[in-house]
Design a protein that fits this description.
The chain is built from eleven helices and 16 strands. The chain is α/β, with parallel strands linked by helices. The protein has two domains: 11-136, Up-down Bundle (Four Helix Bundle (Hemerythrin (Met), subunit A)); 141-346, 3-Layer(aba) Sandwich (Rossmann fold), CATH 3.40.50.10470. Strand 15 and strand 16 form a beta hairpin. It is globular and about 65 Å long. The structure holds 5-S-methyl-1-O-phosphono-5-thio-D-ribulose.
């Protein structure tokens, strides 16, 4: 099957190092940052040079390969203890997106089986995880698009696109495939306060592909739905618990609630690496809180009343009963619940 265009690469392996598109500067500047060791890759995750659940996982996988290269050069056969410390350091960079922990677990398991120089096999594994994520996104895009009736309007939130993944995107992969198939009458992107992933990243990415997108204020979503302009809300996910409760960018829960109130359907597109069977329900998901100045400042300029205290949770949890479809690379689950998610993961 042919695929919609998608030229954006947030993560590149270039020769001997990791090259990350600095998403803090988009869309004003397209600048890549070089990471030659695990510390710089961890800093890039913490500071949101790279963000989005799958992209964080892939970056962490490369970081483990870099760590192994550093420590094998320094300590020879004693490299494992230092890499184990780096695994723990990387695990603490961001708490909510489980793709980070998933990728680190895959890399840690591989470390246990290596004799000799660990760098070549660990780099090969990171490259494989990178490729597999791209393939998963393309599959999800086509599965998700098949649910969308021609002439539909769709609303997305945050950035679950090429910038958040190996390429093509999860939610934006569905939108790319649906656009390619001529199913979409309109695409809307919420600006996604406070970090503005929608305004800065999603609309930039879609415009590069020639997909006609309208930016809306987050607070315009109810009006848009009441107007009948949206048939699907489509988002990615940072962690899907065993019962289907799903953490995603703050505001997703509000959109899912609004969607149900207006008869609009709500779709989550997420690879299996985002499903966390070990987390029983949404109540067990750790929600990251970030600095208040992400709220009180815009572009580095103070806009709130000086001295105000700001509460800045950056994810929320949408209960499973509000999710009409969970799209993965293995196919679609309608109305996901504990049994259907267990069956999907066992298949
Ligand atoms: O804080 P961010 O920008 O890392 O949050 C990203 C999101 O919430 C995305 O929707 C999610 O990670 C899915 S990305 C395919």
């Amino acid at each position: 099957m042919s695929h919609a265009r998608d030229d954006t690469q947030a993560i590149r392996w270039v020769g001997d190092h990791l090259s990350l598109l600095d998403q803090r500067l988009l869309p004003r500047e397209v600048t890549y940052i070089a990471c030659h060791d695990a510390d710089s890759a961890a800093d890039a995750i913490r500071s949101m040079v790279v963000r989005g659940a799958p992209a964080i996982g892939i970056t962490a996988a490369y970081a483990v390969a870099l760590s192994a290269r550093t420590h094998f050069a320094r300590a020879g056969a004693a490299w494992r203890a230092a890499v184990t410390a780096d695994l723990a350091m990387l695990r603490e960079t961001r708490p909510t997106a489980v793709n980070l922990m998933w990728a680190l677990d895959v890399m840690a398991a591989a470390c246990a089986d290596i004799d000799g120089d660990p760098y070549p096999p660990l780099l090969a594994l990171a490259l494989r995880l990178h490729d597999e994520d791209l393939a998963a996104n393309r599959a999800m895009g086509d599965f998700g698009a098949s649910l969308i009736a021609p002439g539909s309007g769709v609303l997305t939130h945050c950035n679950a696109g090429a910038l958040a993944t190996a390429g093509y995107g999860t939610a934006l992969g569905v939108i790319r495939s649906a656009w390619r198939d001529g199913r979409l009458a309109a695409v809307y992107a919420g600006e996604t306060r406070p970090w503005l992933q929608g305004a800065r990243l999603t609309v930039w990415e879609l415009m590069q592909d020639g997909i006609d997108v309208s930016l809306i204020a987050d607070s315009a979503a109810a009006w848009l739905m009441a107007q009948g302009r949206v048939q699907w809300v489509i988002t990615g996910a940072d962690r899907v618990a065993a019962n289907g409760d799903t953490a995603n960018k703050i505001g997703t829960y509000g959109l899912a609630t609004l969607a149900r109130a207006h008869g609009v359907r709500f779709m989550i597109a997420a690879p299996l690496s985002t499903i966390d069977i070990a987390t029983a329900s949404g109540a067990d998901i750790v929600i990251e809180h970030r600095e208040g100045r992400e709220l009180t400042q815009l572009g580095g300029v103070e806009v709130a009343a000086p001295g105000v205290r700001a509460l800045n949770p950056v994810f929320d949890v949408t209960p499973a009963h509000l999710i009409d479809a969970l799209v993965t690379e293995k196919g679609v689950i309608e109305r996901p619940d504990r049994a259907s998610i267990a069956a999907l993961c066992a298949a």
